[in-house]
Design the sequence.
């Protein structure tokens, strides 16, 4: 180090950008917390805020050092769909949603097997095995699980806040 409090790598300060998007108020707060912790160990992290419409393309193009994303993990009710969509190897553009570049042949093999399995018990076992491999590999850093509130007028009945925003508006809401 050159004494500025930031570690050096190959003679240059160890610094990188953390990309967040501006449509979720909690995301910059997560990034600021990571930034504060990294500064304690001598790593300089800059927060770069972009419009939400840019984040997927940046991820798919690899145009980031670190990138934050908010994903509804069970929007289809099928963990295999989600796991394959985000963690199956992206071979020559075959899985562009895997913008992280994560690749593990064992995960790919389990995902391929799970996608053709119809027994729900076996599919659940595949999902558990895949998730364990992802955790072992440190494939992602999960920073939080934000809560969302739903507020309605007193004249509405049956409005329930579910964990997934895909299911807030249902046929159970009455006036």
Sequence:
């Amino acid at each position: 180090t050159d004494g500025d409090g930031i570690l050096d790598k190959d003679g240059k300060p160890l610094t990188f950008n953390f990309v967040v998007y501006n449509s979720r108020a909690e995301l910059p707060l997560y990034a600021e917390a990571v930034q504060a912790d990294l500064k304690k160990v001598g790593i300089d992290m800059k927060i770069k805020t972009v419009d939400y419409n840019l984040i997927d393309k940046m991820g798919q193009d690899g145009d980031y050092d670190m990138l934050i994303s908010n994903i509804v993990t069970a929007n289809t009710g099928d963990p295999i769909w989600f796991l394959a969509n985000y963690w199956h190897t992206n071979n020559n553009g075959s899985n562009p949603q895997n913008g992280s570049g994560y690749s593990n042949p064992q995960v790919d093999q389990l995902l391929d097997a799970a996608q053709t399995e119809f027994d729900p018990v076996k599919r659940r076992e595949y999902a558990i095995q895949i998730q364990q491999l992802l955790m072992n590999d440190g494939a992602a850093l999960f920073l939080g699980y934000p809560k969302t509130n739903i507020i309605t007028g007193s004249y509405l009945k049956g409005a329930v806040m579910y964990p997934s925003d895909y299911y807030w508006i249902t046929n159970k809401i009455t006036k």
